[in-house]
Amino acid sequence: MREFNVALAAPEWILSATILVVLFQDARTRWDNKGGLGRTTWLGLLLATGCAMLQGWFVDTPATAFLGHYGVDGFSIVCKAIFGATALFVMAMADTWLKRVDRGHGEFRLLALMATLGMFFVCSVRDFAGLFVSLELITVSFYCLTAFKRNDERAIEAGIKYVVLGALATAFLLLGIAFIYGATESLWFHKIALTEASDGVGGNAALLEFGLLLTVLGLCFKIAAVPFQVWTPDVYEGAASPVTAFLSMGSKAAGFVLLLKVVRACLGPDGDAGIILATGAWAGLFALIAAATMLYGNLGALWQGNMKRLLGYSSIGHAGYVLMGVLAFNEAGFAAVVYYLMAYLFTVLGVFAVVIIVNGALRSHAITDYAGLGRKSPFLALVLTCGLLSLAGVPPMAGFFGKFLVFQAVVQLGTPVAYTVAFVGAAGVVVSMYYYLCVVKQLYMVEAPEGDTRLDGLVVAKPLKAVLWVCLIGIFVLGFLVQPFVAMAQDAAEALMAAR
Amino acid sequence: MTVGHLITLSGVLFTIGMVGVMSRRNILIVLLSVELMLNAVALAFVGFGAWRGNLDGQIMVFFAITVAAAEVAVGLAMVIALFRLRLTVDTDRVSLLKD
Amino acid sequence: MIGIFFWLFAALLTVSGLLAITRRNAVSAALWAAVSFIAIAGIFVLLQAYFLAVVEVLVYAGAIMVLFLFVIMLLNLREEDLQVLEGPRLHILGVLLAAGFLGGLVWTCRRAGLYDAKNGAIKMTAESVGETKSLAAPLFMEYVLPFEIASFLLLAAIVGAVLITKKRLT
Q1: Which of A441, A442, A410 is nearest to A426 (CA)?
Q2: ipTM
Q3: pTM, whole model, 2 decimals?
Q4: Domain count, chain B
């Protein structure tokens, strides 16, 4: 426990080294010769992700480093694999997209790498200082990525909305941490649990609960849940498409990883040594947030004519479904969260890959412009359809199984609150089916207007084609070959429960 | 002076900052209000730390100041970029993105 | 003695904070905010957080406020722009939110007995003196990882700020 053991953080060090190499490479090359940056980025990301996954075999988990403030366990390894895959997919999308932008390639890659570094750290931190700083590393990188197209008013507007709301949420998160610190005298997850177990909080349970409430509210910003969800559609629309894809998967998943860690550190299920129980009022709070989030996202998506805004509202809705897994607060619930994130990875990134390709030809995100895609480019339409159906939760797609696990975990609780939130969730699924199918209808049933040739002869670049195929296969593999992935999610959840 | 008074003072400053964020249209003053909120949190950390006789709270303030500086730098950069495009710092006049 | 200074700084902090968010002119708002940061530094000194008091003055009242003023002057807002940007206007929902938050905070402190003279007393012990040396040890031992992450955070902010403000990237 009391060792530095620096080598354990090898994936993070590889990413850090990559960032520094890209920084110097960018400074030393002319603006029209930035191909080398892409290669370095790919190499670094592949090595870091591979290294993180190899740790699953070669490291005796759970292992800790930095005097116990950094940990590698089953949960962190699975999450790092998810984040590494996200970053690789986004980089493949960005490779194509950056060809349309003449300047700023180095900055884009640097910021994306730093956001990924933050996500890797998020998986392994074990104290509130590390949590706060790594979360902010992600957030600040995303502020800059959002405003990347700085000559575009929409991008700057999105950036400013994101910064102001994000800073507000940061203040709430930080005040929450202050109260948790006041209650337990420590920033260290492990010690917080010990203090609770030895009745050290005693009369300070009020402080701990108030702090946890504020912390959860602050994290709601990252996962795009009520009451900090307002930014989502605007930022999704204003930011460049690869950035939106990264936001919708990476940033959201990082928020959930931290939410799981925080509730695990501060709350205990029945029969656990912790004083503050996860049942009762806390389950009610999470149920309230989940229900409000699902309603807001799914109802808001109903009258959207812009594809990226639609995906923004749908992303709010999905945050609500995942929160149902958090509220279950048991191994089944946490495993459902991890599985949902895996399924969401392939689904949402597949959809965004198509959006980027279509937008490259159309220069528009209007859903009506997608008319006739089914005839003009059957493969793209197929991937988009499978992605949307998976988002809606139609069997046998990946998204169906994620939703199934989440609902199962909640219904098994058997409390009135659980049934209510499951009912709201089911209603949300039905509503979401409608707006996803409206897009699918546009693809196949509506013909493109006469003379509109923008979608004719779409050429898909190689890296994007690879992303499309991997996502398509992933959507079906996680829908059919469920067992190994569920086992993986359960291992991760077990490690999370044991990490206390 | 008890720790309760310190935390209440920090809460008052936090609320002042919150009101500033919610009520002002000038983006510069909105960012300034966020800084007030982060300072209020710093006060809470130091207050709890002094009450507990523990230095971790002060370490956390150190990180909070770092983060606040980073956020302000990025926020002000965006204000400059916005001003270049629109010649305004008024949040009400920045509304291309809406339903 | 400490009590008197605490109430002095508390009053200064509240008044300057209120003035900072209500000024129409961004320059005077920034200056009032600087006053409130100095008041906070004063309270830090009372609580034996000497190092942070210095950092607060150097970084906040110094660097961050100068950055603010620099940007305000750079934008060079004309008088008529400022006329449009009137003082604060607050919806009833905002008032309720703010009041609810503050009420919840005070209620929490009361429930935890923080106002209690014995339970909430601040013990000025030798261990809690925040000098450079006593802060450096935990910062570079237990919290060295967040420290390293923070360095990347600052790098991200630099890269991003340059990217966003540059007219043309070359």
Answers
A1: A410
A2: 0.97
A3: 0.96
A4: 1
